[in-house]
Write a structure and sequence with these properties.
Elements lengths: L10 H13 L4 H12 L3 H19 L15 E7 L4 H15 L6 E8 L2 H4 L5 H17 L6 E3 L8 E3 L6 E6 L16 H8 L2
Parallel strand pairs: 1-2, 2-5
Antiparallel strand pairs: 3-4
Length: 202
């Protein structure tokens, strides 16, 4: 139950929860690998789809079929969505990103979308921890997104450390928890359809 309650706005606890669940019966690693397999398109399906789309496109435009265009591809796209304000997301986002980068044997596009507190939130009483978490997370993100940075970490159950000189994300989107209209994002659980709709319409 303590895991389900989150990290209590403590980034280091958030990271410890990731590694603890990595080894326990929840088997985070196995679930992430299954996730990658599910979103990877079959090469033959991709080839046939591109062929159909190519012929349809050129038939509509009346142009000769002189070259092929990849309308779809088998390269997975992974979106990590979380918050820099608390301890859970900001404590584990870097390790999760590098897991996808190095452990999946897949060339993928990795996108990060993270909520950060605005100046109003940072200045509110009893919100200092949120601002501190976001600052620490952004410093960490900036460090690993800089050319020449080296990631070295031993994942649970691995005999050798995971090493990478690549950036953790191809693209990062930082969003405020308040919209331009002053509406607060994420009042419901992240698993709630309402919050997912809010994220999709940012």
């Amino acid at each position: 139950q303590s895991y389900e309650k989150g990290a209590g706005n403590n980034r280091m606890i958030g990271r410890c929860l990731l590694w603890s669940n990595w080894r326990r019966k929840s088997m985070v690693q196995a679930k992430l690998m299954n996730f990658i397999q599910e979103i990877t398109n079959d090469v033959e399906v991709v080839r046939k789809t591109n062929d159909i789309m190519y012929r349809y496109h050129h038939r509509k435009l009346g142009e000769p079929e002189t070259h092929e265009v990849n309308y779809v591809h088998s390269q997975p796209r992974v979106y990590l969505i979380g918050s820099m304000c608390g301890g859970t997301g900001s404590g584990m986002f870097v390790d999760l990103a590098y897991f996808f980068r190095t452990q999946t044997n897949q060339e993928l596009k990795l996108f990060g979308t993270f909520a950060v507190p605005d100046t109003i939130t940072c200045n509110e009483p009893a919100r200092e921890r949120l601002a501190a978490n976001a600052l620490a997370g952004l410093i960490e993100l900036d460090y690993y997104m800089t050319d020449g940075t080296y990631y070295n970490e031993r994942f649970p159950l691995e005999n050798r450390p995971t090493e990478s000189k690549d950036k953790p994300f191809d693209f990062v989107n930082l969003i405020s928890t308040r919209s331009i209209k002053g509406q607060t994002l994420g009042q419901a659980s992240v698993t709630n359809e309402k919050t997912l709709d809010e994220l999709a319409n940012i």
